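Researcher: Can you fold this with AHM in place?
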Amino acid sequence: MSTKISLSRYLVEQQRVDGLIPAQLRLLLEVVARACKSISHAVNKGALGGVLGSAETENVQGEVQKKLDIIANEVLIEANEWGGHLAAMASEEMDGIYMVPNRYPQGEYLLLFDPLDGSSNIDVNVSIGTIFSVLKKSEGSGHGVSEQDFLQAGNRQVAAGYCIYGPQTTLVLTVGDGVAMFTLDREQGSFVLVQEHVRVPADTKEFAINMSNMRHWAPPVRRYVDECLAGKDGPRGKDFNMRWIASMVADVHRILTRGGIFMYPWDQREPNKPGKLRLMYEANPMGWLVEQAGGAATNGKQRILDIQPTQLHERVSVILGSKNEVERVTGYHTQT
Ligand code: AHM
Ligand code: MG
Protein backbone atom coordinates (compact mmCIF):
# COMPACT_ATOMS: atom_id res chain seq x y z
CA MET A 1 0.00 0.00 0.00
CA SER A 2 1.73 3.23 -1.09
CA THR A 3 -0.21 5.87 0.85
CA LYS A 4 -0.61 5.05 4.50
CA ILE A 5 -4.20 5.41 5.63
CA SER A 6 -4.62 5.97 9.34
CA LEU A 7 -7.61 4.76 11.31
CA SER A 8 -8.63 8.42 11.74
CA ARG A 9 -8.66 8.99 8.00
CA TYR A 10 -10.51 5.73 7.37
CA LEU A 11 -13.18 6.74 9.87
CA VAL A 12 -13.48 10.26 8.46
CA GLU A 13 -13.99 8.76 5.02
CA GLN A 14 -16.60 6.33 6.34
CA GLN A 15 -18.41 9.35 7.76
CA ARG A 16 -17.88 11.89 5.01
CA VAL A 17 -17.59 9.98 1.77
CA ASP A 18 -19.80 7.04 2.46
CA GLY A 19 -22.09 8.54 5.09
CA LEU A 20 -21.89 5.27 6.97
CA ILE A 21 -21.22 6.56 10.44
CA PRO A 22 -22.30 9.70 12.27
CA ALA A 23 -19.59 11.99 13.69
CA GLN A 24 -20.40 10.94 17.26
CA LEU A 25 -19.75 7.30 16.46
CA ARG A 26 -16.53 8.16 14.67
CA LEU A 27 -15.27 10.03 17.73
CA LEU A 28 -16.31 7.17 19.99
CA LEU A 29 -14.32 4.68 17.89
CA GLU A 30 -11.28 6.97 17.97
CA VAL A 31 -11.45 6.97 21.75
CA VAL A 32 -11.79 3.18 21.93
CA ALA A 33 -8.73 2.87 19.66
CA ARG A 34 -6.79 5.27 21.91
CA ALA A 35 -7.66 3.17 24.95
CA CYS A 36 -6.51 0.02 23.12
CA LYS A 37 -3.22 1.73 22.34
CA SER A 38 -2.74 2.43 25.99
CA ILE A 39 -3.62 -1.18 26.95
CA SER A 40 -1.16 -2.37 24.30
CA HIS A 41 1.62 -0.36 25.98
CA ALA A 42 0.77 -1.89 29.36
CA VAL A 43 0.72 -5.41 27.85
CA ASN A 44 4.09 -4.79 26.19
CA LYS A 45 5.74 -3.75 29.43
CA GLY A 46 4.66 -6.98 31.13
CA ALA A 47 6.62 -7.71 34.31
CA LEU A 48 8.54 -4.42 33.88
CA GLY A 49 5.29 -2.53 34.33
CA GLY A 50 4.13 -4.71 37.22
CA VAL A 51 1.01 -5.72 35.29
CA LEU A 52 1.31 -9.50 35.38
CA GLY A 53 -0.25 -11.89 37.89
CA SER A 54 -3.50 -12.20 39.74
CA ALA A 55 -5.39 -9.35 41.36
CA GLU A 56 -6.88 -11.91 43.74
CA THR A 57 -10.39 -10.56 43.22
CA GLU A 58 -13.34 -12.21 41.50
CA ASN A 59 -15.60 -10.80 38.81
CA VAL A 60 -19.38 -11.21 38.65
CA GLN A 61 -19.03 -14.60 36.97
CA GLY A 62 -16.82 -15.92 39.77
CA GLU A 63 -13.61 -15.85 37.73
CA VAL A 64 -10.40 -14.74 39.43
CA GLN A 65 -9.32 -11.46 37.88
CA LYS A 66 -5.81 -10.78 36.63
CA LYS A 67 -4.23 -7.39 37.28
CA LEU A 68 -4.42 -6.66 33.57
CA ASP A 69 -8.18 -7.44 33.47
CA ILE A 70 -8.69 -4.62 35.96
CA ILE A 71 -6.18 -2.23 34.40
CA ALA A 72 -7.70 -2.67 30.92
CA ASN A 73 -11.19 -2.15 32.31
CA GLU A 74 -10.13 1.09 34.00
CA VAL A 75 -8.35 2.37 30.90
CA LEU A 76 -11.49 1.84 28.80
CA ILE A 77 -13.77 3.51 31.35
CA GLU A 78 -11.50 6.50 31.91
CA ALA A 79 -10.96 7.05 28.19
CA ASN A 80 -14.64 6.83 27.30
CA GLU A 81 -16.58 8.42 30.12
CA TRP A 82 -15.98 12.12 29.39
CA GLY A 83 -16.30 12.39 25.59
CA GLY A 84 -20.05 12.99 25.47
CA HIS A 85 -20.73 10.16 23.01
CA LEU A 86 -21.89 7.55 25.48
CA ALA A 87 -24.87 7.00 27.73
CA ALA A 88 -23.34 4.04 29.57
CA MET A 89 -20.89 1.16 29.38
CA ALA A 90 -20.99 -2.52 30.32
CA SER A 91 -18.05 -4.81 30.82
CA GLU A 92 -17.36 -8.47 31.44
CA GLU A 93 -15.43 -7.32 34.49
CA MET A 94 -18.20 -5.22 36.12
CA ASP A 95 -21.35 -6.46 37.85
CA GLY A 96 -23.73 -3.82 36.55
CA ILE A 97 -23.71 -1.11 33.92
CA TYR A 98 -21.48 1.94 34.30
CA MET A 99 -23.39 5.18 33.79
CA VAL A 100 -21.56 8.19 32.43
CA PRO A 101 -21.14 10.43 35.50
CA ASN A 102 -23.46 13.44 35.71
CA ARG A 103 -20.60 15.90 35.39
CA TYR A 104 -20.14 14.82 31.74
CA PRO A 105 -22.55 15.23 28.84
CA GLN A 106 -24.53 12.14 27.87
CA GLY A 107 -24.54 10.69 24.37
CA GLU A 108 -26.78 8.13 22.72
CA TYR A 109 -24.39 5.19 22.39
CA LEU A 110 -23.78 2.18 24.61
CA LEU A 111 -20.35 0.59 24.71
CA LEU A 112 -19.80 -3.02 25.76
CA PHE A 113 -16.43 -4.70 26.17
CA ASP A 114 -14.38 -7.63 27.28
CA PRO A 115 -11.41 -5.50 28.34
CA LEU A 116 -8.85 -8.30 28.30
CA ASP A 117 -9.84 -11.44 26.47
CA GLY A 118 -7.71 -14.54 26.88
CA SER A 119 -6.78 -13.77 30.48
CA SER A 120 -5.14 -17.18 30.99
CA ASN A 121 -2.54 -16.16 28.39
CA ILE A 122 -1.48 -12.87 29.99
CA ASP A 123 1.30 -14.27 32.14
CA VAL A 124 2.64 -16.64 29.48
CA ASN A 125 3.25 -13.98 26.82
CA VAL A 126 0.69 -15.30 24.33
CA SER A 127 -1.64 -13.07 22.27
CA ILE A 128 -4.57 -11.51 24.11
CA GLY A 129 -6.98 -8.72 23.19
CA THR A 130 -9.84 -6.32 23.83
CA ILE A 131 -13.27 -7.00 22.28
CA PHE A 132 -15.89 -4.25 21.93
CA SER A 133 -19.41 -3.73 20.68
CA VAL A 134 -21.38 -0.51 20.19
CA LEU A 135 -25.16 -0.23 20.40
CA LYS A 136 -27.43 2.77 20.16
CA LYS A 137 -29.87 3.55 22.90
CA SER A 138 -33.35 2.85 21.55
CA GLU A 139 -35.41 5.88 20.72
CA GLY A 140 -38.30 6.15 23.09
CA SER A 141 -36.41 4.51 25.95
CA GLY A 142 -36.69 7.84 27.76
CA HIS A 143 -34.19 9.75 29.84
CA GLY A 144 -31.57 7.92 31.79
CA VAL A 145 -30.30 4.49 30.98
CA SER A 146 -30.81 1.07 32.48
CA GLU A 147 -29.60 -2.47 31.90
CA GLN A 148 -32.69 -3.00 29.76
CA ASP A 149 -31.29 -0.58 27.16
CA PHE A 150 -28.35 -2.94 26.61
CA LEU A 151 -30.48 -6.01 25.99
CA GLN A 152 -30.52 -5.69 22.21
CA ALA A 153 -29.81 -8.47 19.73
CA GLY A 154 -26.41 -8.44 18.02
CA ASN A 155 -28.02 -7.48 14.72
CA ARG A 156 -28.57 -4.01 16.24
CA GLN A 157 -24.83 -3.36 16.71
CA VAL A 158 -23.60 -0.21 14.97
CA ALA A 159 -19.90 -1.00 15.35
CA ALA A 160 -17.87 -3.91 16.65
CA GLY A 161 -14.27 -4.92 16.78
CA TYR A 162 -11.30 -6.15 18.69
CA CYS A 163 -7.71 -5.19 19.22
CA ILE A 164 -5.24 -8.06 19.36
CA TYR A 165 -2.06 -7.61 21.41
CA GLY A 166 0.26 -10.08 19.71
CA PRO A 167 3.53 -9.84 17.78
CA GLN A 168 1.74 -6.83 16.28
CA THR A 169 -1.06 -4.83 17.86
CA THR A 170 -3.89 -4.85 15.32
CA LEU A 171 -7.32 -3.31 15.56
CA VAL A 172 -10.04 -5.04 13.54
CA LEU A 173 -13.26 -3.15 12.93
CA THR A 174 -16.64 -3.25 11.29
CA VAL A 175 -19.26 -0.55 11.05
CA GLY A 176 -21.41 -2.74 8.80
CA ASP A 177 -19.44 -2.18 5.61
CA GLY A 178 -17.04 -5.13 5.70
CA VAL A 179 -14.05 -5.66 7.94
CA ALA A 180 -10.87 -3.60 8.01
CA MET A 181 -7.61 -4.20 9.90
CA PHE A 182 -5.25 -1.54 11.28
CA THR A 183 -1.83 -2.26 12.75
CA LEU A 184 -0.34 0.01 15.38
CA ASP A 185 2.69 1.87 14.07
CA ARG A 186 4.53 2.51 17.32
CA GLU A 187 6.86 5.16 15.86
CA GLN A 188 3.93 7.16 14.50
CA GLY A 189 1.67 6.31 17.43
CA SER A 190 -1.26 5.59 15.12
CA PHE A 191 -3.19 2.65 13.72
CA VAL A 192 -2.55 2.21 9.99
CA LEU A 193 -4.83 0.37 7.54
CA VAL A 194 -3.27 -2.95 6.52
CA GLN A 195 -6.26 -4.74 5.02
CA GLU A 196 -9.72 -3.83 3.80
CA HIS A 197 -12.55 -6.09 2.65
CA VAL A 198 -11.33 -9.01 4.77
CA ARG A 199 -12.85 -12.30 3.53
CA VAL A 200 -13.12 -15.63 5.32
CA PRO A 201 -12.91 -18.52 2.83
CA ALA A 202 -16.10 -20.61 2.83
CA ASP A 203 -14.17 -23.88 3.21
CA THR A 204 -11.39 -24.78 5.58
CA LYS A 205 -9.27 -27.65 6.87
CA GLU A 206 -8.60 -26.12 10.27
CA PHE A 207 -10.69 -26.33 13.42
CA ALA A 208 -10.30 -24.77 16.87
CA ILE A 209 -11.86 -26.23 19.99
CA ASN A 210 -10.67 -27.10 23.49
CA MET A 211 -10.28 -30.86 22.95
CA SER A 212 -9.83 -31.54 26.66
CA ASN A 213 -13.60 -31.08 27.01
CA MET A 214 -14.39 -33.69 24.35
CA ARG A 215 -16.03 -36.22 26.65
CA HIS A 216 -18.52 -33.58 27.81
CA TRP A 217 -19.74 -32.36 24.39
CA ALA A 218 -23.14 -32.94 22.86
CA PRO A 219 -23.31 -35.59 20.07
CA PRO A 220 -23.41 -33.11 17.11
CA VAL A 221 -20.14 -31.43 18.12
CA ARG A 222 -18.54 -34.78 18.86
CA ARG A 223 -19.63 -36.07 15.47
CA TYR A 224 -18.18 -33.06 13.64
CA VAL A 225 -14.82 -33.28 15.42
CA ASP A 226 -14.66 -37.08 15.08
CA GLU A 227 -15.13 -36.65 11.33
CA CYS A 228 -12.37 -34.05 11.17
CA LEU A 229 -10.04 -36.32 13.13
CA ALA A 230 -10.76 -39.25 10.80
CA GLY A 231 -9.16 -37.13 8.06
CA LYS A 232 -8.65 -38.58 4.58
CA ASP A 233 -9.95 -41.99 5.66
CA GLY A 234 -13.19 -40.61 7.11
CA PRO A 235 -16.40 -39.21 5.60
CA ARG A 236 -14.80 -35.79 4.94
CA GLY A 237 -12.10 -37.32 2.76
CA LYS A 238 -9.48 -34.76 3.79
CA ASP A 239 -7.05 -34.20 6.65
CA PHE A 240 -7.75 -31.41 9.13
CA ASN A 241 -5.36 -29.36 11.22
CA MET A 242 -6.14 -28.18 14.75
CA ARG A 243 -5.34 -24.94 16.62
CA TRP A 244 -6.42 -23.77 20.06
CA ILE A 245 -4.88 -20.58 21.44
CA ALA A 246 -7.31 -20.11 24.37
CA SER A 247 -7.68 -16.45 23.41
CA MET A 248 -10.82 -15.98 21.33
CA VAL A 249 -9.31 -12.84 19.78
CA ALA A 250 -6.31 -14.78 18.52
CA ASP A 251 -8.39 -17.71 17.22
CA VAL A 252 -10.80 -15.33 15.47
CA HIS A 253 -7.92 -13.31 14.07
CA ARG A 254 -6.48 -16.45 12.48
CA ILE A 255 -9.90 -17.29 11.04
CA LEU A 256 -10.33 -13.80 9.57
CA THR A 257 -6.85 -14.12 8.09
CA ARG A 258 -6.93 -17.60 6.58
CA GLY A 259 -10.25 -19.25 7.44
CA GLY A 260 -11.16 -21.95 9.93
CA ILE A 261 -13.86 -22.83 12.41
CA PHE A 262 -13.95 -21.93 16.11
CA MET A 263 -16.21 -23.65 18.62
CA TYR A 264 -16.84 -23.18 22.30
CA PRO A 265 -19.93 -25.37 22.67
CA TRP A 266 -22.33 -26.22 25.47
CA ASP A 267 -21.15 -29.12 27.55
CA GLN A 268 -22.85 -31.47 29.96
CA ARG A 269 -20.89 -30.54 33.08
CA GLU A 270 -23.15 -27.54 33.62
CA PRO A 271 -26.25 -28.35 31.55
CA ASN A 272 -28.03 -25.13 32.46
CA LYS A 273 -25.17 -22.96 31.26
CA PRO A 274 -25.43 -22.40 27.48
CA GLY A 275 -21.66 -22.11 27.08
CA LYS A 276 -18.56 -20.42 28.46
CA LEU A 277 -18.40 -17.33 26.30
CA ARG A 278 -20.47 -14.22 26.79
CA LEU A 279 -23.08 -13.18 24.24
CA MET A 280 -22.79 -9.41 24.63
CA TYR A 281 -19.03 -9.00 25.04
CA GLU A 282 -17.64 -11.81 22.89
CA ALA A 283 -20.10 -13.69 20.67
CA ASN A 284 -22.01 -10.71 19.25
CA PRO A 285 -19.05 -8.55 18.21
CA MET A 286 -17.06 -11.54 16.91
CA GLY A 287 -20.14 -12.98 15.22
CA TRP A 288 -20.79 -9.73 13.37
CA LEU A 289 -17.15 -9.37 12.30
CA VAL A 290 -17.11 -12.91 10.95
CA GLU A 291 -20.42 -12.42 9.11
CA GLN A 292 -19.18 -9.14 7.67
CA ALA A 293 -16.21 -11.06 6.29
CA GLY A 294 -18.49 -13.61 4.63
CA GLY A 295 -18.42 -16.25 7.39
CA ALA A 296 -21.17 -17.45 9.72
CA ALA A 297 -21.82 -17.58 13.47
CA THR A 298 -24.43 -19.70 15.27
CA ASN A 299 -25.05 -21.27 18.65
CA GLY A 300 -25.80 -24.58 16.90
CA LYS A 301 -29.47 -23.72 16.54
CA GLN A 302 -29.73 -20.13 15.46
CA ARG A 303 -27.72 -17.19 14.21
CA ILE A 304 -25.88 -15.61 17.14
CA LEU A 305 -26.88 -12.11 16.02
CA ASP A 306 -30.59 -12.96 16.23
CA ILE A 307 -30.49 -14.08 19.87
CA GLN A 308 -32.52 -11.74 22.06
CA PRO A 309 -30.47 -11.30 25.25
CA THR A 310 -32.26 -11.50 28.57
CA GLN A 311 -29.27 -10.74 30.79
CA LEU A 312 -26.20 -8.56 30.49
CA HIS A 313 -23.75 -11.33 31.34
CA GLU A 314 -25.59 -14.04 29.42
CA ARG A 315 -23.52 -16.93 28.10
CA VAL A 316 -23.86 -18.68 24.79
CA SER A 317 -22.55 -21.62 22.80
CA VAL A 318 -20.42 -20.36 19.90
CA ILE A 319 -19.68 -21.87 16.48
CA LEU A 320 -18.17 -19.41 14.03
CA GLY A 321 -15.92 -19.10 11.00
CA SER A 322 -15.87 -20.52 7.48
CA LYS A 323 -19.46 -20.62 6.26
CA ASN A 324 -19.70 -24.16 4.93
CA GLU A 325 -18.21 -25.68 8.08
CA VAL A 326 -20.42 -23.63 10.42
CA GLU A 327 -23.45 -24.67 8.39
CA ARG A 328 -22.38 -28.30 8.61
CA VAL A 329 -22.06 -28.29 12.42
CA THR A 330 -25.31 -26.35 12.75
CA GLY A 331 -26.96 -28.91 10.46
CA TYR A 332 -25.77 -31.75 12.71
CA HIS A 333 -27.53 -30.02 15.61
CA THR A 334 -30.83 -29.74 13.80
CA GLN A 335 -30.69 -33.38 12.69
CA THR A 336 -30.64 -34.65 16.30
P1 AHM B 1 -11.81 -14.57 29.29
O1 AHM B 1 -12.63 -13.53 28.62
O2 AHM B 1 -12.02 -14.65 30.76
O3 AHM B 1 -10.37 -14.51 28.92
O4 AHM B 1 -12.37 -16.01 28.77
C1 AHM B 1 -12.64 -16.22 27.44
C2 AHM B 1 -11.59 -17.12 26.83
C3 AHM B 1 -11.61 -17.07 25.32
O5 AHM B 1 -10.78 -16.05 24.87
C4 AHM B 1 -11.09 -18.42 24.94
O6 AHM B 1 -11.59 -18.86 23.70
C5 AHM B 1 -11.58 -19.30 26.06
O7 AHM B 1 -11.86 -18.45 27.16
C6 AHM B 1 -10.54 -20.32 26.46
O8 AHM B 1 -11.09 -21.16 27.39
P2 AHM B 1 -10.33 -22.49 27.91
O9 AHM B 1 -9.31 -21.99 28.88
O10 AHM B 1 -11.43 -23.30 28.48
O11 AHM B 1 -9.68 -23.13 26.74
MG1 MG C 1 -13.17 -13.00 26.97
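Model: Folded with AHM in place. The domain at 7-195 is CATH 3.30.540.10 (Fructose-1,6-Bisphosphatase; Chain A, domain 1).
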